[in-house]
Amino acid sequence: MQCYVFFGIQGSGKGTQAKFLSERTGFQHVNIGDLLREQVALDTELGNEVSRIIEVGDLVSDDVIYKLIGDSFCPGCKGVVFDGFPRNIAQAEFLMEHFEVKRVFFLNLDQEKAIARISSRRVCSSCGLNYNLVSDVPSKKGVCDDCGGKLVVRDDDKPAAIARRFKKFYKRTFALRDFFETRGLLSEVDASMGIEEVSAAINAIVDSISSN
Ligand SMILES: [Zn+2]
Q1: How many CB atoms lie within 10 A of CB 113?
Q2: Region class of 44: left (phi > 0), else alpha (psi between -120 and 50), else beta
Q3: Is 161 contained in some domain?
Q4: For 70, which of 12, 35, 148, 152 is 20 to 30 Å away at the CA?
Q5: Cα-to-centroid distance, 127 and ligand 1 (Å)
Q6: Dist. CA 119 → ligand 1 center (Å)
Q7: What is the pLDDT of residues 90-105, one digit of tens each?
Q8: Structural domain of residue 54, as residue ranges?
Q9: What is the number of domains present in the chain?
Q10: What is the CATH number of the domain that holds 96?
Q11: Mean pLDDT, to the nearest integer, of 100-114?
């Protein structure tokens, strides 16, 4: 089965771009984070295992990930756009073995810009509704439109937490980037551009592969 792969730090727009490409190609969008959350919410046997693993702070094993992926394909699936997979070299090797990898997109965003994007996020401290001071502005500053609760910055979205995440992300991602670059499959896209421009850059690359 053919596939595309997306990498990128939080704030790079990776999920949005994976969704766009999935709509454009008719390939199924497979987001590993969503698959994991879905299993937990459905309270399946696998979901219980996943919550136990997450509770003790371990990463979900490669085998669990492979099973989730295998179970996620719709009947007649033409291809897949992976989002959040692979996360390590063993998973990348599995991918190469089981899929025809068309292209791996690395949406590159520097830390400063990611912090600027993420730090505009706010969440309601009483109902949990999300806001964005740039794109999803509350009608009254600092107050939830829905319940009147106070809007706060999530701990995870504070600059120190973002910097920590960056360090972890890049440590993991550099090895994967090399892996796919060596195989001639990597395209790095500047994610500091607007959503439309990033999407156009990705489409141009996809079209140049298809016409070869
Ligand atoms: Zn609220």
Answers
A1: 15
A2: beta
A3: no
A4: 12
A5: 4
A6: 19
A7: 999 999 999 999 999 9
A8: 2-111+166-210
A9: 2
A10: 3.40.50.300
A11: 92
